C-alpha cells in the first residue's frame, strides 16, 4: 500500500515509554517534528533487539535532526514493559527511552502495510486473522506535517542500517529546508 506522499494513517494505540503505559498514543502529538516510525516483529528476539538498541544508541543523532523515534510491534503493553525492564545481556531492551507501540489488535501494522500472516476483512471492515500475525520490518519517515516521505520494508531476518536511515532523513530535511534535490550517494 503506497503511503508515500500522503498523510500518515491516524492511529490511536497503546504504547510504553519510560515504564509507563500510554493508552491513547498518537503520532499526531509529534506534529512539528520529523518522526521515524519503525516496525519490528517481536520483543525478546535477536535481530529485533539489535535494532531496538541501535535506535536507542543513535537517539541523539535523530534528536539533532529534530526527529523522534517510535517503535512498533504486535507485542502487548505488558510484554513491552517487561522487555524494557530486562537487561540487554538477557535479551531485553533496558535503557530504551523512546516509545514502543503495543499493536495487539494489529490495526497500526495493518494501516502501515507491515502486517504479515493470513487475514481477511469481515463485511464490516474488521480484520479477521486466520493465522498468527506479526509485522514485517517496516520503516517510515514522516515530515513535520505528518506526511510520509519515506517508506521501506525489510525481511524479518535482516536488520536495518541506521546510517542509511539517517541519510534518508538528512536528504528529506535538505530537500524541505533548501529546496534542493539530493543525487545518488549524496551526504549531508
Structural class: alpha+beta
Instruction: Name the CATH architecture.
Output: 3-Layer(aba) Sandwich
Number of helices: 5
Distance between the termini: 30 Å
Percent strand: 25-35%
Find the CATH topology: Glutaredoxin
Helix content: 25-40%
Roughly what is the average pLDDT, rounded to an integer?
94
Number of domains: 1
Q: How many extended strands?
A: 11
CATH superfamily: Glutaredoxin
Q: Please give the order of strands in the largest beta sheet.
A: 2-1-5-4-3-10-11
Taking all Cα atoms into account, the compactness measure Rg is: 16 Å
The CATH first-level class comes to Alpha Beta
Characterize the main sheet: 7 strands, mixed
List the uncertain runs. none
Apparent shape:
globular
The helix/strand order is EEEHHEHEHEEEEEEH
Short overview:
The protein is α+β, with helices and mostly antiparallel strands. It has helices at residues 46-57, 59-63, 77-85, 107-111, 162-178, and strands at residues 13-17, 20-25, 34-39, 67-73, 100-102, 115-116, 119-121, 127-129, 134-135, 137-142, 148-154. Helix content is 26%, strand content 27%.
Amino acid at each position: 500500500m503506497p503511503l508515500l506522499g500522503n498523510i500518515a494513517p491516524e492511529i490511536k494505540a497503546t504504547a510504553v515509554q519510560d515504564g509507563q503505559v500510554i493508552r491513547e498514543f498518537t503520532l499526531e502529538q509529534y506534529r512539528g517534528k520529523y518522526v521515524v516510525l519503525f516496525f519490528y516483529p517481536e520483543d525478546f528476539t535477536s535481530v529485533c533487539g539489535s535494532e531496538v538498541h541501535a535506535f536507542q544508541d543513535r537517539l541523539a543523532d535523530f534528536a539533532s535532526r529534530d526527529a523522534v523515534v517510535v517503535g512498533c510491534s504486535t507485542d502487548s503493553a505488558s510484554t513491552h514493559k517487561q522487555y524494557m525492564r530486562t537487561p540487554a545481556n538477557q535479551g531485553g531492551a533496558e535503557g530504551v527511552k523512546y516509545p514502543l507501540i503495543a499493536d495487539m489488535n494489529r490495526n497500526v501494522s495493518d494501516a502501515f502495510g507491515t502486517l504479515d500472516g493470513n487475514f481477511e476483512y469481515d463485511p464490516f471492515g474488521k480484520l479477521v486473522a486466520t493465522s498468527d500475525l506479526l509485522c514485517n520490518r517496516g520503516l517510515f519517515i514522516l515530515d513535520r506535517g505528518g506526511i510520509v516521505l519515506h517508506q521501506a520494508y525489510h525481511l524479518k531476518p535482516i536488520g536495518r542500517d541506521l546510517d542509511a536511515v539517517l541519510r534518508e532523513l538528512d536528504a528529506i530535511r535538505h530537500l524541505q529546508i533548501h529546496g534542493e534535490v539530493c543525487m545518488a550517494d549524496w551526504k549531508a
